[in-house]
Amino acid sequence: MTRIGLIGCGMWGRNLARNLAQLDVLGGVADLVPAHAESFAAEFATSAMNVTALIEDAGLDGVVIAAAAPTHRDLACQALAAGLHVFVEKPLAIDLVEAEAIAAAAQAAGRQVMVGHLIRYHDAFLTLQDQLANGVIGAVRHITANRLAMGRIRATESVIYDLCPHDLSLLLALMGEPPHQVSCHGASHVTPGLPDMVSTWLGFSGGRSAMMTTGWMCPYKEHRLTVTGARGSLVFDDTRPWAEKLTLYRDDIAPDGANFAITRAAPMHLPVPESEPLKQEMRAFITCCETGEAPPTGIADGLAVQRVLQAIDDNFTEFGTAPDHLDITPDVTPDVSVARKG
Question: N- or C-end of the chain: fewer Cβ atoms within 10 A?
Fold first, then answer.
């Protein structure tokens, strides 16, 4: 029976542990804070141990790493050297050098590395890919990816490395190649030097383009991917109910003298199987451990995303930075009893 360990017993680690336990493969947990591991062990009926014991002595086939990003390289390389397949939560690493070190360790060990680009396993995205393959909207021209919410703000990691990997993996999968041009602008409003709001433009072959708007200081949640083709658009909105997550828009733009005529049809919601993406992702890692075959988000995908992250960093222009201390306490309480006169 396949056995998989978990390193990192934090907020997201709990979701991973729950799914691994439900799939009957959880073989132990570890955390730098022993009490956290012991709490998980009691909750999910498994064993708590230190990291080295989990990797080297627990009889595992693979390990899931959900610890802080700066620890990814060392933990992944240690697990690979012990002969384990490795799942690493995004980002794969804090920079390209460390990501390439993980890739080299995987090659030397003859083991697979899978990266936690979760949305690639979402049935709405998989259905979107099928629709594109069937030519429903024609050739892709532009993709817009918006990933906005309030928090979870990190003090040691920018929004570029925390949130952008999700959409970059989607964009690269849809475009089928890395971008040849990258431009990024943003601001650091909370922690100086760590962007919390960014806007990124990506150029691809054939005049195709993509834009990402990413931030964790937005008062509302928006996780929306819009793929515009020659004969319409597909919109994957992960904040909508399952029946409305994927929508087809048939908008036709045709020359009309000196202008253009736009013909619009009623939007059509496309059926999407309802399933938990994280469980689908963990099933893919189990298959990876059992077969030794590369998953869809293997090390090649991880490196491709990491290279674009590096390009974003290298081409980033900052428009604002936070003071040493950000005072978020409002000075004035609005008087809601006064109606606005129009």
Answer: C
